[in-house]
Amino acid sequence: CGMHVFHERAGKGSRIVWMAEPGKEREFIFVIMPGGQDRELADDDYSHFGFALSSRGDVDAIAARARQAGCLIWDPRDEPYPVGYYCGVRDPAGNYVEFSYGQPLGPGAEEMPAP
User: Fold this and answer.
1) Alpha helices, DSSP H, located in 14-90
2) Which of 21, 31, 81, 106 shows a CA-CA span of 20 to 30 A to 6?
3) How far is the first Cα of the chain from the last one, in angstroms, to the nearest whole number?
């Protein structure tokens, strides 16, 4: 997804990292730290974070890593516009995270019609 760790520190026996896109470190960041509780989302709850990637191959690569780690929840699949090609993973706190290609956002979005 193009993000990188641009700050990290120790915090009460854990590691805390700040992540952002290169050059946008003062605009939008994720702060990642241990904590929270594992939770199960309801079967009909598809709340998630989403990240646009540069290619189907990038989606497949993340899916392969997630499968190996045991956290792949949605195998890569194609859906009609505007959904595109995507996969989903579950983070350690139980949140769903989608990685997609071909949606009208992120790389290549300028050439696509608005949904």
Assistant:
1) 56-69
2) 106
3) 22
- Exposed, middle or buried: residue 38 (CB in 10 Å: 0-12, 13-18, 19+)? exposed
Rounded Cα gap, residues 88 and 90, in angstroms: 7
DSSP letter for each residue of 29-90: -EEE-S-S------TT---EEEEE-S-HHHHHHHHHHHHHHT-EEEEEEEETTTTEEEEEEE
Please list the pLDDT of the chain residue by residue as tens digits (115 residues). 688 898 888 877 778 888 888 988 877 777 777 766 666 777 777 778 888 888 999 999 999 999 999 999 999 999 988 889 999 999 877 888 999 998 877 666 777 776 6
Q: How far, in Å, CA of 73 to CA of 6, rounded? A: 28
Span 38-115 CATH architecture: Roll (3.10)
CB 106: neighbour CB atoms within 10 A? 17
pTM to 2 decimal places: 0.70
Token reading at 80 = 């009609």
